[in-house]
Every structure is written in structure tokens, then in C-alpha cells.
Predict the structure.
Amino acid sequence: MFRLAILVSALILGGNIGLLSAQAQETESETEQERIEKGVREMGLLAGYAYQCHLRTGDEDAAETVGDESLAVAEIVLEDVGSTLAFLFAGNAGFGAGTTFESENCEQAIVEWNKFVDEFFADEEDESEEASSS
């Protein structure tokens, strides 16, 4: 569950990602579940945008890495909180990869995705170390 908090806080609680901030504005009427779902959707979109941007530059290896990272995130979300949120993440990653995205935003999308991945998997490693030391 801690990794899900990282996923959501990367977008909503820790300051909105510049590319998605207009879409991610929190409203007073949203429930905690709605905020979590919105965060998962937005991070999925970001994954798709980063994937698309790498393909545009011809960097297929980097695009494949984003795809692998996205799959790993979806698997962790599935393990931690279930199929609904994992589906939201994966579905939005696919949508982001296939929808029109402005090329001038590609650098920021890639930077933000890499930042998210670094934080998300650093916390996974911390959890694994804690479990093995218990």
C-alpha cells in the first residue's frame, strides 16, 4: 500500500506534475478513492506519453524500458491494491501512448516519468530490505 501512496503523492500530494497539473487539480468534493484513481490514471498517461516521446525520437530501447517499467508498476499496483487500479493505470498508459501529444512537451514527460520511476522503485527496494531483515 505504501507504493500506491508514492504513486498518488507523485501527482497529487507532492505537487502536480507540470504536464498534467491542469487535469489533476484536486476538488473539495473528491473522495480519497477518487483522488487515488485520478492519480493512477494520470501516472498511466505520463507513462504512455514518455513511451510515445521515445518512439518519436527513434529511441526504441528507451521506449521498451518505459514499457517494462509501466508493466512492473501495474503488477505492483495489482499486488498491492487490486485489479481495478492496475487496469486504470495500464489502460491510461496505452491511451497516452496512442493519443496525440505535443512534441515540445516530450522532454518534460520523460523527465517526470523517470523521476516517478526512481522514487517508486526506490521505495520498493526499501520495502524488500525491511521484509528480509525481519
Notes: The chain has five helices and no strands. Confidence is low (pLDDT under 50) at residues 11-17. The two ends are 18 Å apart (CA to CA). Helices lie at 2-13, 32-56, 60-81, 83-98, 106-133.
